[in-house]
Amino acid sequence: MAEVAHKDDAYEVLKNAKVVAVIGISPKQERPSYWTTEKVVKKGKHKIYLVNPRYAGEKILGIEVLGSLRDIPEPIDIVNVYRNPAHAEPIVQEAIEVGAKAVWFQPGAENYEVIEKYKDKINFVYEACIGVEASYL
User: Fold this and answer.
1) Counting Cβ atoms within 10 Å, is residue 54 exposed (0-12), middle (13-18) or buried (19+)?
2) Which residues contact 120 (CB under 8 A, 6 or more apart)?
3) Domains of the chain
4) Alpha carbon of residue 137 to chain centroid
5) Residues 67, 50: contact at Cβ < 8 Å?
């Protein structure tokens, strides 16, 4: 049975993860997807994959950007989402399809209808920032 975790459990989810896929990464340094991901990368405790079809093949933070979760060659612990909530459902469906352990909706990316619909299929983290949680590692 999947669990719905929010900010109270976020640290444990991140601490126990090895592979994090970031959906919606931007090359713009002022964007939260860039600077919070940079914090996680600098901690050096996770294998980070960046996913954004718009920038596939380019490098952001020194990491090649992939076009899809399907392009990641190993099991994913966290799918970290920086997208408009309207785009949440196909991301969650793909995360389930590739066998990811959890979807982490960054603040502002939460889609509570999608969380409710898929809560029995995959774990969710929301109302917590991965950059903030990474600072505690």
Assistant:
1) exposed
2) 1, 2
3) 4-134 (3.40.50.720)
4) 17
5) no
Beta-strand pair 4-6/123-126: parallel
Q: What tens digit of pLDDT does each residue of 66-103 get?
A: 999 999 999 999 999 999 999 999 999 999 999 999 99
Torsion of CA 27, 30, 31, 33, to 10 degrees: 70
The residue type found at 119 is: K
Task: Give the chain as a 3 state SS string.
Answer: CCCEEEHHHHHHHHHCCCEEEEECCCCCCCCHHHHHHHHHHHHCCCEEEEECHHHCCCEECCEEEECCHHHCCCCCCEEEECCCHHHHHHHHHHHHHCCCCEEEECCCCCCHHHHHHHCCCCEEEECCCHHHHHCCC
Rounded-to-10 torsion of CA 47, 136, 83, 24: -30
